[in-house]
Write a structure and sequence with these properties.
This protein folds into 3 domains: about 1-110, no CATH class; about 135-165 and about 385-410, no CATH class; about 180-375, Alpha-Beta Plaits. The protein has 12 helices and 10 strands. Helix 4 (about 120-145) crosses helix 5 and helix 4 (about 120-145) crosses helix 11 (about 380-395). The strands form 3 sheets. Strands 3-5-6-4-9 form a 5-stranded antiparallel beta sheet. It has a 3-stranded antiparallel beta sheet with strand order 2-1-10. It has helices at about 1-5, 65-85, 100-105, 120-145, 150-165, 180-220, 230-240, 260-280, 315-335, 355-365, 380-395, 400-410, and strands at about 30-40, 55-65, 110-115, 245-255, 290-300, 305-315, 345, 350, 365, 370-375.
Length: about 425
Amino acid sequence: MHTLLEEMNGANGLVDPFNTLFPFGRFQRLHVARFLILPEAQAGADPTRLPAAPPRLVFLGDCDGPSDRFIAEMAVLAGPELRYIFSHCTPFIGTGDSLVNWMQAHQVEPAANYINWRGRTVLQIRQEAALHQALSGQLRQLVQEIGRDDPRALRQRLLSFVERERDAGRLHLTPPAPTPVGWWFRNLIHKLGVPLLLLALSPLFLLLSPYLVLRLRYLERHDPEQVERPPRSHLQQLAAREDYDVTNPFSAFGEVKPQPFRRCAVRFFLWLLDYAARHVYNRGYLTRVQTIHFARWVMLDNNRRLLFASNYDGSLESYMDDFINKVAWGLNLVFSNGTGYPATRWLIKDGAEQEQKFKFYLKRRALPTQVWYKAYPGYTAFDLARNSRIREGVEVRPDNDAEIRQWLAQIQL
């Protein structure tokens, strides 16, 4: 299977968007996607609690719109290719079976899902990138012609240029699709319902708090750490798949600690994380981290194992440093429930704050991502936000010279 997946990649280490095995480039609503193989998982000390699991093929895709619609689109645009890939899996997908039904039956909903900027589509990203490129070239030409002293004149010339390019069909700024009323209503119910539910349960949490605190401290003192340096061969394997683009994929797979307290804790904190990512951190930030495009946490094997996958700008070292320095407490809330995690204190202290231990722990569980696709290579999360601000300056025009200069400065970046 490894050899089969490698055939999707080009000589430069990046996936060929129109490879014959899975043509990612056909899907106009697909932001990022990956194929990876989860290694065989050994049974725990008690196989009834943590059974063994064979190697598994995973496909992850972040797309615009509902997942069911994307699955149907995959079957239409790449049905034969997917049948061939999934024919290597057990249970085998037969020629007479419905590909859509088979994929839906094997789909696992994430326990938590983070999107850098909810509502920003692939089409919008590409159109705004083209707008920035066109304006950047035009601005350099205008500065040579009329100088920098009159920002209003520069802006007016640029806006006139945009109108001409749009009339000629060389630039497109498609208005965003209206939010479906049903989705908006469900989202509002979720936004209000979760805090109300937590408020209703607060007396129960208060009643149980002595037990929860004592149990937590006992486990924190007795859970073993597994923070030895990863083998050099493993680190080299990870490094060999890094930095082909300004954005990198990260995949990690590990076991949840066996105690019921830990399994309940990880589900609870992932539930809160999913809520925060949906309603609070949905405009370019995950707490103070701005370099992540998409991330998801997927519980497997009856909540006994966790797959984490993200797409981030920069190197793995800078990615880990970003989290350690800015949101170590958040890492502890979720990942301290994984076996071998550096010991925490009162759940949010220590843990990831022990930098070297945390990095060894994470790298030991990191997996090479065999195939990774990004619809807009070369663009960071910062680039996407800048391009959106440039478009906003075209459609909602600034009034004073300071705002105009700031808009022009964005174009020059």
